[in-house]
Structures are given as C-alpha cells and as structure tokens.
Amino acid sequence: MASTSIKTCVYCLADKVYQSGKRDGDFNAEHVVPESFAGVLDSLTLIGIVCKECNGGLGRTIDQKLARGTTEALYRFVEGNKSVEKISELSRRNFDLSLAKAEDKSLRDARINLTHQNGQIKQRYAVQLIIKKKGTNEWYTVQRQDFPAFVESKPDVEIGEFKILGPAPGPEEFFEEIKAVWPDVKLLGELEPAALNEDRKRLGHEHTASDQQE
C-alpha cells in the first residue's frame, strides 16, 4: 500500500512529497551508476533521496556528459552496450581525433569523424579541402561548409596542390563546387587509397585565384 511522507532532497535540501510505490510524488529513482552505462539487473538505486527536478538536471548535464563525452562513453560502443549506429551522439569536442603528428604534414589539420561500417566503429575523414600554398610548405585545411568563407577571406591565395578528403560521393561533389569558383583547376591524378580507408583526389592549380578575376 502506497504511503505519503515529506522527505528532504539531498541536493537542493528542499522538503518535498514522497509517495512510495508511485510516480506521482516529487521524487523518483536515482541510479547510482547511470542507466546509460549499466544495464545490470538490481543495480544500486536510491529511492526517495533525490527529487525529480535535481535528478533530471543531473541527467541533462553530468550524466549526459559522461555518456557522450568521455572515454567510458566510447567504450559503450566498443563493448556493444550501445549500437554503433548512434556513434554520432558522441561529442567530438572531448575526443582528440587528431593527425597532428602525421608523417604527411598536409594531413596534420585534417578533421576525422567517427562513423560505423558493418557493425564496427570506423575513423573517416570529413569532406574537406587541403590546399598547399604555391612555392611554400604551408597548408590550409578547409571544411566543405567553410569553403565559401575561405574564398572570400583569401581571394588572392596562390594555390599549388589540392587534396580533397572524405567518403564518396563527397569529394566528387566538392570538386564540382571548387571548379565553379576556380574553373581552371585541374585533376592531376586518379582517386587513390589514403589513410583511414578513404579516398582522396590529388589536384593541381596552375594560377592564383586572383588571376581568374582579372
């Protein structure tokens, strides 16, 4: 039989109504280990200790950060506790998916995404353009969505070599967008295998971007 009493939330210290055996009161179950990490039966649960408001707030902040932005969050997918089809839920800001130490200097600023294939987690390049400044060893890395802003900010950039990274058909589509801006851009090679099981195009440019505007 359900009973009603007044209890104090351990977080906000407010006195609220607790109804045993019902969900209508001001308290609900607080899982010591978040449900997102432990699908174990009879896991430790606190009853009548944390009010719904505090429990919900913790779930939207701390629990969600733990579940989406930590190494443990990644292992949820590795260990099969969460479907790899939802790998995009991970917060990439908290993961160092970096090629900063890559032997190929042109790839050191390339962006990598976590995705999945055949039930396995994969690392894949985002669709992006890598430009070598003509006559130098300086490289620019430009995400596809940032290309218009790049062209506007660097209209006179002298371009030597291009690389377009990313899963098909992204590079092919991006190449057409690039040619619409720089119509004289030329493909110097065929698609070739690259790191992270992706393809990349090697492109060349025989003049500066400013030459096209004359």
Could you describe the 3D structure shown?
The C terminus is likely disordered. The strands form four sheets. Strands 7, 8, 9, 10, 11 and 12 form a six-stranded antiparallel beta sheet that branches. Strands 1-2 form a two-stranded antiparallel sheet. It has two domains: 94 residues, no CATH class; 118 residues, no CATH class. Helix content is 21%, strand content 27%. With 214 residues, it is α+β, with helices and mostly antiparallel strands. It is built from four helices and twelve strands.
Mean pLDDT: 80
Structural class: alpha+beta
Task: Name the helicity range.
Answer: 10-25%
Rg calculated over all Cα atoms:
26 Å
Count of spatially separate domains: 2
Major sheet summary line: 6 strands, antiparallel
End-to-end separation? 86 Å
Shape: elongated
Helix-strand sequence: EEEEHHEEEEHEHEEE
Give the helix tally: 4
Low-confidence stretches: 191-203, 205-214
The tally of beta strands, per DSSP, is 12
Bin the strand percentage: 25-35%
Q: Layout of helices and strands, plus pairs?
A:
Layout: E1 4-8, E2 15-19, E3 30-31, E4 45-46, H1 52-68, H2 71-78, E5 112-117, E6 120-125, E7 128-133, E8 139-143, H3 147-153, E9 159-166, H4 170-181, E10 186-187, E11 192-194, E12 198-204
Antiparallel strand pairs: 1-2, 3-4, 5-6, 7-8, 7-9, 9-12, 10-12, 11-12
In brief, what are we looking at here?
With 214 residues, this protein is an alpha+beta fold. The chain is built from 4 helices and 12 strands.
